[in-house]
Amino acid sequence: MVPARHHRRFSPAATGARTSTSLTSALYTTSKLAIARWVRRTAPTSPWAGPGVALNAIAPGVIETPMTRSTLESEEDRKALFARGPAPFNGPTAKPSATAALLDWLTSTDNSYVTGQVIFIDGGAESTLRPDLV
Predict the structure, then answer these.
(1) pLDDT tens-digit profile of 32-54?
(2) CB atoms < 10 A from the CB of 62, how many?
(3) pTM to 2 decimals?
(4) How are beta strands 118-121 and 57-60 bridged, if at all?
């Protein structure tokens, strides 16, 4: 008799991610989760925390870039985009300089205590869509 094996399954819904039948969406969601877990598990280890390296990740919302330009030009596409990711704080988009300023601070000597975090810079979309997720 073959012994029973316990398998763990990844559930995007359990992590707060939306499920989708799209392979691209599944890969994107899985990659985000993998990075978040890696940062949280790796940041407090001696190779990083020992020499004083703050390891964090950022999770940006809609940033005004060439990639988002075509979506932001159409009123219909903008409405669909913001229905999926509302940004009540200074939304609906951010300039690249907002993300750059956060990265600048996170990697500066002024950051003396923030490590192992995934910081959402999304105008409040994450907290609006998943208010109970910590």
Answers:
(1) 999 999 999 999 999 999 999 99
(2) 21
(3) 0.74
(4) parallel
**Helix 75-84 and helix 66-73: axis angle, to 10°?**
110
Which residues have a catalytic role annotated? 28
Q: According to the 3-state scheme, what is the secondary structure of the chain?
A: CCCCCCCCCCCHHHHCCCCCCCHHHHHHHHHHHHHHHHHHHHCCCCCCCCCCCCCCEEEECCECCHHHHHHHHCHHHHHHHHHHCCCCCCCCCECHHHHHHHHHHHCCCCCCCCCCCEEEECCCHHHHHCCCCC
CA 97 vs. chain centroid, Å, equals 18
Amino acid at position 122, single letter: D
**109 vs 26: CA distance, rounded Å:** 37
Query: Higher pLDDT residue, 106 or 88?
Result: 106
